Amino acid sequence: MDVSQFDYDLPEELIAQTPLKDRIGSKLLIMDKIDGNINHGRFPDLLNYLEKSDTLVLNNTKVIPARLFGVKKETGAKIELLLLKEEENHTWEALVKPAKRVREGTVIDFGNGLLTGVCKEEMKEGRRKITFHFKGIFHEILDQLGEMPLPPYIQEQLDEKDRYQTVYAEHRGSAAAPTAGLHFTTDLLEDIQRKGVKIAYVTLHVGLGTFRPVSVDTVEDHTMHAEYYEIGDETAELLNKTKKTGGRIIAVGTTSARTLETIARDNEGDFKRSSGWTDIFIYPGYQFNAIDGLLTNFHLPKSTLVMLVSAFAGKDHILAAYKEAVERRYRFFSFGDAMLLI
After folding, report:
1. 210 pLDDT exceeds 80?
2. Nearest-angstrom CA–CA distance, 322 and 315
């Protein structure tokens, strides 16, 4: 399957550079995933499309201020790190710029000695394993020195860090936000529960795949990076009950969808308490085992996420919806508007 089949034309001015003042102020495109029929509304209209028997699944990962700017201790050269995956003994896998300046043994200084990183291993695609040395609590230092790792297509500065964080973020570990969840407020979540809709949480720490474009010509040749996920007993029991009673499981975001599909695939359609690493790659031809609906943002052309939503609702339907969204001046990508496929 050719990657170019998932391309579309997007005017640059439709790429949302900043979040709206009101989280629930975005537009919502609603598409029937069977026949492709489209309706338009505002995000709070989501409530009208949910039923009492539904379970809404949210990814409660928390974005860490994972972008660090330092200097090479030996030469004073500027070095940028994007923390991707935490390992043992304060060692992280990181994306390094410029990687050619950071070799095994290189020492990088952050915050005038507040934090020091030593390169322990050189990896492919500009990645390095960095061991950090510091006094105190690492995440407190990271909060002080780090910046939110906004995607490269966002050029504006983010005035409030919490706007790149969901209101239900709990477990630290992501290098990017699960952006479909950015639209929710605590009040809207309470309204959803008052309707009788169940809310469940999974965790998937978003990693390098979010920043890595598809660089091959054929879809099947692309390799996904693994990301860590967790699901607890309570969520698993609720999801199994929802399936058993004929309710719908609606994933908020592609990260929730990938987590649920991973677990259902590994457990013959059931959900069980589990954790681990997933590199599941969903593209047209994939048979969904877990989710019945998907709430998501609009994704980059030729990205793995466009492939995922095309697998769920049909490539022709998705590209038609994107074309209509462009014509109606929807806002695209992380801080953009939302789409409900149901």
Report:
1. no
2. 10
Q: Is pLDDT at 211 greater than 70 in this prediction?
A: no
Q: What is the pLDDT of residues 155-207, one digit of tens each?
A: 888 888 899 999 999 999 999 999 999 999 999 999 999 999 999 999 999 98
Q: Find, among 20, 24, 70, 91, the residue nearest to 331 by Cα.
A: 20
Helix extents (H) in the chain: 138-145, 186-194, 233-244, 254-266, 304-313, 315-327
Q: Burial letters for 53-82: b for 16+ Cβ neighbours within 10 Å, e otherwise?
A: ebbbbbbbbbbbbbbbebeebeeeeebebb
Cis peptide before 178 (omega within 30 of 0): no
Provide CB contacts within 8 A for 276, sequence distance 6+: 228, 229
Strands 198-204, 55-59: pairing kind:
parallel
User: Mean pLDDT over all residues of the chain?
Assistant: 95
Strand partners, 46: none
Terminal alpha carbon distance of the chain: 25
Q: Which has more confidence, 85 or 312? A: 312
| Residues facing 127 on adjacent strands | 95
